[in-house]
Each structure stands twice: as C-alpha cells, then as structure tokens.
Design a protein that fits this description.
31% of the residues lie in helices and 22% in strands. The protein has 252 residues and is α+β, with helices and mostly antiparallel strands. It has three domains: 47 residues; 106 residues, Outer membrane lipoprotein wza domain like (Outer membrane lipoprotein wza fold like), CATH 3.10.560; 79 residues, 2-Layer Sandwich (wza like fold), CATH 3.30.1950.10. The strands form four sheets. Strands 9-8-12-10-11 form a five-stranded mixed sheet, with helices on one face. A three-stranded antiparallel sheet has the order 4-1-7, with helices on one face.
C-alpha cells in the first residue's frame, strides 16, 4: 500500500509540474517588461541613417523649369502605357548611371548625401536642377514564428515592433529571448541577436530595422509542451486526470 502511495505521489508531482509549466505567462512572452531582473538591459544608441549599398536600386526625380529636359527624363522613366519611375542599380564600383549623367558615386552614402552628389552633377548641365532620390528596394523579410514574407518599410524609422505587426503576429511559440536580425553592412552579413521582451529595447541598437533586414524568430524549445489557449489547457488537464486515474487503477 505504501509503495502504491509513493507511485501515486510521484505521478501527482509530475502532473502538477506539467500543468504549471504548460501555459505561457507574461514573463515568458510579455513585451516591454520593466521590472524583470532576469531580462537583459540594453543601452540607448543613436539612430544611424541607412547607407546605400552595392546592388541597391535607386529612384530619382529631377525638378527643373527646363521642360525639354523634364520630358526627356519622363520618357526614360516610363514603361509602356503605365507611367512609373525607373530604378537604377548601384554597380559593384559603387556608382550609378542616370540619364545624361554617368558614374555618380553613391555607395556608402546616406540618401541625403547621395542626393547632393547627384544634384551637383546635374547642376553642371542644368543650373536650376533639384534632385530627390529614394530606395526602390525598401523592404525587409520575416521568417519563422512571426510570419513569413517580404514587406515594405512604410516609414523612415520603422521599429522592430512595427515590422512584426506588419508581418502578422509574434507567436507565443517563438523564442522571444533569441530574436535575430540578419543585416547586410556592406562588409558582410551581421547577425544581431537580442531578447525582445525588455522595455530597454526601445531606442537601442536593435530597435530600428533597415532596408534588406531579415528578421528571424525561431521556434522556442519549450514550446513543445506549451498550450496557446484555454481550450488547449482544459484538454491538457483532462488528459492528465485520465493519466492519474489509469495510474491509480493499475497500482491497485
């Protein structure tokens, strides 16, 4: 009898442990946590403007009172019957070729710095030239437990939270403490790994995303025995009780 009670006690301990650890809690999946000493604390970092890289696609717009030049530029920026701005690829030597102006260095420059370079070259032939440029490939990629796809960057300073909300939903089964961003720095791919839960993530070096970033949220190892909903929890309780009843029956 005592032996049977020992077996039952062991089974009860196992069942209770499973039940207590089977649900997601705020500390494990909550964002913007401020008073959790187990989480890392990130330092604030200055926002750095994106710098143009080789193979980026540049879109430019020339503003001038010279109607002839404007028409020529417009004709070079349309395809078929639909008018759209053409993009110009940054060559391996870091330059772009634009109608009437060739070999303009832009790689390694911010958008504003590149605008000044392009505008200066145009002013050599069009004194009142005003140039505006932007990136055509202004997108980021998400894979894993936060959705999958390639999405546009809809604002200049887009945050990791905004990016994940656009991609769908950060699943509770995701590994919140090991989120990764793969970023092309121009000198190779940099892998940035961080915990997305602490509030100190705001304005840290992990907070903003950049064109061509790849955000990867892997499946958390502990998610195997977790449940996402109340229905799942009830099902787990029911199966655990059934297991206990079976154990009691066979230990008689």
């Amino acid at each position: 009898m005592k032996r049977n009670l020992k077996h039952i006690n062991k089974i009860l301990i196992i069942v209770i442990t499973v039940l207590l650890s089977s649900c997601y809690n705020y500390r494990s999946v909550g964002l913007l946590q401020e008073n959790n000493p187990m989480l890392p604390k990130y330092e604030k970092a200055e926002y750095e403007n994106y710098k143009i890289q080789i193979n980026d696609e540049i879109v430019f717009r020339l503003i001038t009172i010279d109607e002839t030049i404007s028409r020529l530029i417009s004709s070079n920026s349309s395809l078929g019957s639909g008018v759209r701005q053409m993009s110009y690829r940054v060559y391996p030597d870091g330059t772009i070729d634009i109608p009437f102006v060739k070999g303009i260095p832009v790689a390694g420059l911010t958008i504003r710095e590149a605008e000044k370079n392009v505008e200066a070259r145009f002013k050599e032939i069009i004194p009142d030239a005003n140039v505006k440029i932007s990136l055509a490939n202004k997108t980021f990629t998400v894979i894993g437990e936060a959705g999958t796809g390639v999405f546009p960057i809809i604002r200049e300073k887009m945050t990791i939270y905004q990016a994940l909300s656009v991609s769908g939903n950060l699943s509770n089964s995701g590994d919140f403490k090991n989120v990764r961003i793969l970023r092309d720095t121009g000198n190779g791919i940099k892998v940035m790994e961080f915990d997305i839960r602490p509030a100190s993530l705001i304005e840290s070096k992990y907070y903003y995303i950049y064109p061509n970033d790849i955000i990867y949220v892997r499946l958390a190892p502990s998610s195997f025995y977790k449940v996402n909903s109340w229905g799942g929890f009830v099902g787990l309780v029911t199966s655990s009780v059934s297991l206990l009843i079976s154990a009691l029956y066979f230990t008689k």
